[in-house]
User: Fold this.
Amino acid sequence: MSSTSHVPATTPDPQDELLDALRTLVPDAFPDGDLDVGALLQTLGATEAARPSFSFTWPGIEQARADARIPTTATLSPDPSASLNWDDTRDVLIEGDNLQVLKLLKNGYSGQAKLIYIDPPYNTGETFTYNDDYSVPESEYLRATGQLDEQGNATTSKIENAGRKHAPWLTMMFPRLAVARHLLRRDGVILVSIDNNEVHHLRLLLDAVFGAANFIDTMTWRGARKGDGKLTAGGQDYILVYARDKEYLKANDVRWREDKPGLEPIYAKVAELQAEYAGDWEAATKAMRAWYRSLPEEDPSRAQEHYERIDENGVWFSDNISSPNYRENLIYDWKGYKPPENGWRYEKATMQRLHDEGRLIYPADKSKRVQIKSYLHMHEQWAPASVFYKDRRSASKALKELMGSKVFDNPKNTDVLARLFHSMTGDGDLIVDFFAGSGSTGHAVWEQNPEDGKTRHWLLVQVPEKPDEDEQSGKAAIKAGYKTIFEITAERLRRAAALLQPSGEGAPKLGFRLFRSRPTNLIIEAPIVVTEGMTGDDYVQTALANVQGEPVIAGADPLAVSWEVALKATDTQLDAKVTEHQLDGVTVYEFTAADAAAASAGRLLISMDKFDLATADALLLTDDDTLILRGDKVDDSTTLTLAPRLQSKLVLLERVPREVSL
Ligand SMILES: C[S@@+](CC[C@H](N)C(=O)[O-])C[C@H]1O[C@@H](n2cnc3c(N)ncnc32)[C@H](O)[C@@H]1O
Assistant:
């Protein structure tokens, strides 16, 4: 049921519109809901920061902001031989540092992901050691927090350096979240797993990146109690949930729904009691109550224990039948009973139908309220729980069985992830996880798709870090021949595909395209350094040599270079279909979007070979096509003929961009 809409009395306030647009563009300038001019200036890189009204900061925030801004020269290189069913899949697994990879995805995937799930390193150690580049030396931390002066003398007798543990973690997380935000669709959502070590900081960090107004919930995932808990039992962790644009979800009346767990055993028990008590519904109800009480506290069926009354139609509880809001037309007497204050929940015709179906319960005392039988089979879905129980050890056990030994610690349970994906995403949606670990997110999507008949896709990123030899799992991984965690991710997904591959004609072929983050194939032009004795003529000669020089590293694979230019110069996605055309010794790659709806009118054609007008004719080039060519392999007459036709859709790969006047 959607709420009523109304015609606004005035045209929109342009200032509010501007603020709204700014809030969408720069949410971290609204840390507390209102515009923080200082934060805005900082985001823009302006130096004169105004005094912030409220802000979350840590030593390293400047570095974090810079990390988010600095462009990367890296590329993503396809590796079809390490992929699984390259031609038939839209799922993508990327080896690399996620910050670089996220930056490379920005062109093709801006506003494309429906859901991002991440489970970053929890920062449980004394210092955060995932990437040494992010650690802050103690002296630097103390100086940044005003505890040491410039000469290195203590400014306070009580030195605090506990924050040193958190600062590097925050510095690592901020740019990744800031770049990842661009990938979300307007109705998208991000879910971040975390434990007590950083949950408080992460909430503030997500407020800063996504805007506090987009906070949805902190889900609590109860696992097994910690055996060694001295004060409290612990054992829980959290999933922070933020919308890309919560207002948009509200305006579109978005509802996340999942099937209530634990219904099957309830229905089985009800059927048994209906047969056993045949019409003695009071006795059946008593037995049903006793059965609920016999279940362990965390049994999912217990969440439905208010459905305890049994009749021939099923199990029900007696629900109130008053309207949630006052409605004039719902105020009427019904069979001698007065209406509730706000009126009945239904109009007269519906009340009559419910009466005829025997759904209404009439108390003997007419001053009491009429109730309605609310049957469980009519309410089998609900919003995903904010607190839920799932023993995480079962995930470790399942992964160990799949991999043959325990090669990875603390994987997430695929059934928990699958349930979340089920309620928050739908057909065709893209799910991204850029701290992939063992690849549970991909596995969970493959588990869920056949369950609800949807086709979701995934994109996972995992850094090729070495297994930790100090851990049992690391030793087992090395023994099993895995050189990196990424190799574990890929192998887990290969095994999951074999396990889950649906049979039957037309069943989707499970698989993934594997890309690796690699240094660029392009020659990045360094500025000419003027040295002593260099004449103006020398300078011009060097500049000319640069212009004419090859723009691509010698020996680079043309297909990999074509992918690189496609990713950097267009909005090509990694599931694009690539067709190779061979035209008189000239290779031309045609990139076609996998999602037909996203395909533009023209083709994207890329060639790294010598290219002339004859090749253009053989390709049946149209004015809608985009053509990317190496500047050093195309002569001026070809360029001057094609440029007026294709305009900005003729893209030249050159060391130093030439002006082509049309
Ligand atoms: C807590 S684990 C994720 C576990 C995963 N949810 C699962 O179920 O298996 C975090 C993962 O992020 C990876 N990681 C850490 N820093 C990364 C980075 N900069 N880029 C990509 N992956 C990274 C780690 O190697 C680790 O595998």
